[in-house]
Structure formats: C-alpha cells, structure tokens
Amino acid sequence: MERKEETAAKFHALVLIFPLQGHINPMLQFSKRLAARGIKVTVVTTNSINLPVESRSNLIKFESIPEISNQEGEKDEKQTDNDRIDVFLKKIEAEVLEHLPMIFERKAAAGEPVKVLVYDSVMPYAFDIAQKQGILGAAFFTQSCTVCAIYHHIHQGTLKVPLEEPNSSLPSVPIILESKDLPSFIYETGSYPALLRLVLYQNLNFKKADWLFFNSFDSLEHEAISWMASQYPMIKAIGPTVPSMYLDKQLQDDKAYGLSLFKPDTEACLKWLDSKAVGSVVYASFGSLANLGEEQMEEIARGLTNSQCYFLWVVRASEESKLPSNFKSEGEEKGLIVNWCPQLEVLAHQSVGCFLTHCGWNSTLEALSLGVPMVAMPQWTDQPTNAKCIVDLWKTGVQVKACEGVMRKEEIKMAIKEVMVGEKSVELKKNATWWKELAKKAMIEGGSSDKNIEQFVSSFLST
Ligand code: UDP
Q: Which of 206, 269, 378, 399 has the highest local Cβ count within 10 Å?
C-alpha cells in the first residue's frame, strides 16, 4: 500500500492570495502548514509582489499573475480614495479571471494537476473558475469569525444599522455592541462603498465553497464559530497562523511569515530592545495600510513621550512626513522609530510590555498568541470590533476613546500607564498569558485547529 506521505506529495493545492500584507501573512503560513503535511503547494498572487522562487522545504512554489497595465495612465486627481480602491479591486478581479484558468491548465499539462484551490474569501469569483475545472474550493477568511458573522447578519438583513437600541447583542457575539463597535464600512455607511461591497461579497462563499477556513481558534471565538458552523458546517478554525516556534519553544521553524512587502529594520530593532529592561517597552504600530492624520500622529507622539515609557514605533516611510518636526531626533532618548519591524520577533521579545495597536486582525491574533497586553487604537474596517473584543471579551487590553474623531495624548498616556504599570496591568497580563496558552493548545498536535487542518488534508487523501 502506498505510504500516506507519498499520496500527500501527489496532492497539489493552489493557494490564491489577495496582494495585501494582512492577507499574505496568514495564507502563506497556512500554506506552510499544508506543506508540512507533505502536500505540494503553489502560492499564487499578483506580480506587484516580489515572490521568492520556492520555499526552503521545496514543497511550496510561487507563481504570479501578470498585472494588467493601468489603463488610466496618469493619476486622476478627481478620483476619490474609494474610486481608486474600486479600480484596484476590479483590476485584480480581471487579472484573476484571465490568468487563473491558464495556471490550472499549465499545471495539468505539466503532470501536476491542482486538486484544491484555497482562495482568499474576498475573491469568491475564483471559486467559479475552480468549479469549472472540476476542482474543490476552500475560502480562507483573514478577518475574525465574529466580524464575518456581523457582515453575515447585515447581508441577511437580520442586523439593521444604526442599531435600534443603544446597545444590542447578536446571537453569534457574546458581548454588547454599540453602533460604533461595528466594522467601519457598516457604521460609517457611505465611507467606502467599494470596500463594503467587497466584505459583503464574501457571503457568496458560505453557500458555495467546499470548506470555509477562519484564522482563529475555537476557544477564542467559541460563540461566533459555533453559531456560524450551525449555519454552515464547513466552517473550520485553523489558526492562529503564527509560526509554530512562537507558540511552542521546542519548535524551530521560521521566525517570520516569509513574504514581506516592506523591508524590516530587524537589526536596529532587536539591538535596541536587547538594551531595555524586561517589560519596559511599548511597541506601537498601525499596520500596513492605516493612514493617520497629522493631528493624530502628533497626539500619539506626545502620548508616547508623556507616558515616560520606552517606545518602539513603526511609522511607514509613506507616513513619516506626518511626524511632528524634529520628533524623530527629540524622541531618541526614549524611543526608536522605524519604517517596518519584524513584528513577531518584537512581540516575542522580553522587553516588550504592551502593544499599542490599530487592532488589525493579524496584529490582534499575534498579540494574543504571544501573550502581549494591548492598548487598542482602532482606525477603520474590522478594527473597532476587534478592539471591543480585546477589551470586553478577551480582557487583554484597554481602548483609547476618541474625542471628535481624534484620540488625545492624555488618553493615550493614561491607557499606556494602565496596561504597563496600573492596578489592572496584572490582570491584563494574566489574561494575555491565558490566551497564549490556549493558542498553543489549539495548534499543537491534537489541538482543535490542528485537527481541522488534519481533517482537511485527510479528506482528499482518502478520495
Ligand atoms: N507587520 C510587520 N511589521 C510591522 C508591522 C506589521 O511584520 O512593522 C505585520 C504584522 O505582524 C501582521 C501584518 O503585518 O502580520 C499586519 O496585518 P494586520 O492584519 O495586523 O493589519 P493590516 O496591515 O492588514 O492593517
């Protein structure tokens, strides 16, 4: 009888990733988990991304979809941000529709036919291509299950916005939500219609995909996952997609996800962190997309300095001009500002005492999995809901309240103090350590997420 590993190596999965950092990291890590089980994986994304040729294991190969040249040529100044996003989304859809069938055909002709497509849930059109080729399809959601449940309620008309009551609870969400805690595209209707369409479009996956994967774990989002699974049994939590070495010190796998759109200042960050005392540093980052106003940047700069704590602040190169003048050199004594950092290594560093975060889903999961308490400063999209869960459901952080749309320096300073040294800090740290343990439990052999991945792999090996 053929050995299981040999059967696995003949099985070819194609993983189609939307070209944004917050989508690349979890899907690439999931690809590595499939490859670790012996499955051949081809990762596909657009060629705006500098792809490696293949991974260390040789089991992951990379392919890019050529980009359609921008028909518009010169940047149209009359275009709003929403218009630009709309053009970008349509471009990606057109690229995938044109090139994905060719990739499937090429692989089949090369004697490596693709048997399953794992595709980013914001590209449900990819599933139709897979279906035409007679291939199975698994949608991969890069947001929390709670957020997807909210989008689902909106899509089904079971949740009306603004919420009728000042407070409202949903069957899948075990905490009281106010309108402002909902994802921004819903709460601020009309802000980004193209993105609202995109997130609601994900609902098409629920009925058609063969599997629905969430980057989460059962104990973290128990209510949302079980409610959603009661409606759609193919829902499986397969996270956190954090490299295993951070969850279990015995494991010596990758220190990074492996495909970064930004160049991290690794040496400077780690050297600086090494020189600081245990738990003394505030790590601040707003992820790969957030676009903060100058006034907000100034409030953050002053809040960090006034907290008297050491801080490592990631300010992307495109945002640097918004820093208060001279702040970079003035703040040198207490802080280090870099354009990008190796976030996992930073969060895992013993000097880091808290994470001042925009609450992107990856950052949230990484902080929970590495046991780091948070100061939540959500900006847009799913971040307000993630922040609410951090504070009220997982109880590992505090949220900075906004005043007329801006989070002020006093509030930021107080929140940092509360998490770093205040009475509450002990409880927050204890809870963070608890989630770290549960994240590990989900991913180690026999854990809930590990079993779900194993079940996925076994299901096609038995066919
Ligand atoms: N990240 C990083 N270095 C940084 C900032 C962020 O490696 O300096 C990574 C982070 O670990 C996470 C991703 O970028 O995996 C950001 O994803 P998230 O969902 O948190 O936010 P987004 O960028 O999508 O808003």
A: 378
- pLDDT digits over 120-150, tens only? 999 999 999 999 999 999 999 999 999 999 9
- Ligand 1 centroid from CA 286, angstroms: 8
- Please confirm, yes or no, whether 23 is among the known catalytic residues: yes
- Cα distance between residue 115 and residue 94, in whole Å: 23
Q: Are 24 and 49 in contact (CB under 8 A)?
A: yes
* Choice from 17, 20, 21 to test ligand 1 binding pocket (greatest atom count within 8 A of CB): 21
Q: How far does residue 21's CA lie from ligand 1's centre (Å)?
A: 7
Distance CA 132, CA 316 (A): 42
Distance 362 CA to ligand 1 centre (A): 6
Calculate the dihedral angle through the C-alpha atoms of 185, 191, 193, 195, rounding to the nearest 10 degrees. -50
- CA torsion 259-193-404-183 (nearest 10°) is -60
Rounded CA gap, 155 and 201, in Å?
Answer: 9
Let me know if 120 is a catalytic residue. yes
Of 204, 26, 68, 29, nearest to 131 by C-alpha is 204
pLDDT of res. 1: 42
Catalytic residue from among 86, 99, 120, 210: 120
- Scored b (16 or more CB within 10 A) or e, 205-214 reads bbeebbbbbb
Percent of the chain with pLDDT over 90: 76
User: Could you tell me if 11 and 278 are in contact, meaning their C-beta atoms sit under 8 angstroms apart?
Assistant: no
Q: What is the Cα Rg of the chain in Å?
A: 22
Q: Is 314 in the pocket of ligand 1 (CB under 6 A)?
A: yes
